[in-house]
Amino acid sequence: METVRQRLWFGRKNEVVKLRRRKSQLYVKDDECPLSNGELRVAVFCVTFRLINCFLVQTSFVPDEYWQSLEVSHHMVFNYGYLTWEWREGIRGFTYPLFFALIYKTLHWINCDTVWLLIWAPRVVQSLLAALADVKFFLLVRTLEDGDVAKWTFFCHLCSWFSWYCCTRTLTNSMETTITCLALFYFPLGRSKTHSSKTYLSLVALAVVIRPTALIVWIPLLLHHFWQEDHKVKLITHEYIPIGSVAVVISTLIDCVFYKKWTFVQLNFMKFNIFYGVADFYGSHPWHWYLTQGFVVVVGPHLPFFLHGCSLAFRKYKVLLVAIVWTLLIYSLLPHKEFRFIYPLLPFCMIFCGVSVAHMKKWRRPAAAALLVTNLLAALYTGLVHQRGTLDVMGHLQTLCDSRGVVTQADVLFLMPCHSTPFYSHIHCPLKMRFLQCPPNLGEDGYEDEAETFYTEPLHWLRTSFPDKYSVPTHLVLFDVLEKDISTFLEDNNFVKTAEIFHTHFPEGRVGGNVFIYKRH
Predict the structure, then answer these.
(1) Is 151 exposed, middle or buried (0-12, 13-18, 19+ CB in 10 A)?
(2) What are 496-506's pLDDT values in tens digits?
(3) DSSP states of 382-446 as a string?
(4) What is the pTM of this model?
């Protein structure tokens, strides 16, 4: 009898254990599902936040956000426009413009290729990708740290003024940073449970295809992964080489289709920028510029928290710190420097900032408030005010085309530093337009920098270029600082100012505070 009771008791106990195991398995499955309720709320918030971000950035940053993306895409789809010298020499890849060309082609198919949609649709898609990167960044930090640190790291990431300023722009640097965030989620970092070598390596390969210099940031991380990997030979032969080769082959095929000849963009990029030093043509800075100015501006008000976080989490995230220092040093060796080049380092920096703020205990809320206010002011000013005139002027010029895109007899000349404004991607009609040319000297006979020649003697250049009134353009677009120098030409040819558009509170050199439009009567 006792034996029967024992068997019944043990049987019930086993059933309870099995039931508990099933429940635990169900909980595990819930955790492994794509998004829990909390994560779904984070995703919705990120999408909403980045869409608001997108429409509150109405200023220009650098010419590349149009001339190396949207202008090329417009030319690919609508067969008119202007391609800069980089595309004639084959140092730019068509993979990134193709992404926006597909959007343009879709809009054209459904007869919705309005100017407004051509301008904003690519940026909205860029914003959605940035939101996806935000979600992945949050999920990554949550696997690396406790909920408190993850929360403050995510806060630091979202309130970065430079991310707000850049992430929704159609810049290769913006896409590079977005892909870097996504790749970091799958990278074997610390206790991360999301590791997938093939996924992160594929994303890194895509980033390098879009912008070859993306490899600089990832070299320390790739070496770290290689050093930690037990099967090193297999990692190289089964993942590094195959994924890299496939990326190069696909990008080369895309470029060959659009260049209509065999073109190896990555090789040409290295040849022109390193061996020929073409990048120096666009300006050079002292070696310490990134350390004393560039990094300080990009990290912005987060800088004290970043330095504090480095002292706290140096050992845990030393590979990220090495990547930051390595990238800054390599870029410091190159003469031409820009803020946007080090933008992909920001996600790495934000992890240290989050550790810092979370460690402050009683001071974390005042610190967070200070971060929010200072970043918000910078983000709103740079996004809505600073350098908006060169975008707004295109809206004025678009009125020279009627609603059906039919061109009037207008002839527009931009007397501004070359590539100051967007071009046909913001007009979307074959309006006759011309700007001052400024290609670098590639050893061609009879080389001339038209923009430099013009600014040396503006009045002489205008009179020589337009000797009679029949050849004079109908519209001139210029910065206010040039008005005085060419006032005689304006009066002699009956030009009247029709628009004065604010551009910046900080005019510098050839870039004025306002943009003027003159029309010939």
Answers:
(1) middle
(2) 999 999 999 99
(3) HHHTTT-HHHHHHHHHHTTB-TT--B-S-EEEEESSTT-S--GGGT-S--EEEE-------S-TT
(4) 0.89
pLDDT confidence band for 10 (50 / 70 / 90): very low
Q: What is the spatial distance between Cα 129 and Cα 123, in angstroms, rounded to a whole number? A: 10
Nearest to 139 by CA among 193, 206, 199: 193
Question: Which tokens in the block code for residue 497?
Answer: 């100012």
Q: What is the pLDDT of residues 402-443, one digit of tens each?
A: 766 555 688 999 999 999 999 999 999 999 999 999 888 777
pLDDT single digits (tens) 66-79 = 999 999 999 999 99
Q: Residue 365 and residue 244: Cα distance in Å, rounded? A: 45
**Amino acid identity of 312?**
L
Q: How far apart are CA 241 and CA 224, in angstroms?
A: 17
Is the distance from CB of 515 to CB of 389 less than 8 angstroms? yes
Q: Which of 326, 359, 357 is nearest to 344 (CA)?
A: 326
Do the beta carbons of residue 499 and residue 389 sit within 8 Å?
no
User: Which tokens is 390 given?
Assistant: 């060169």
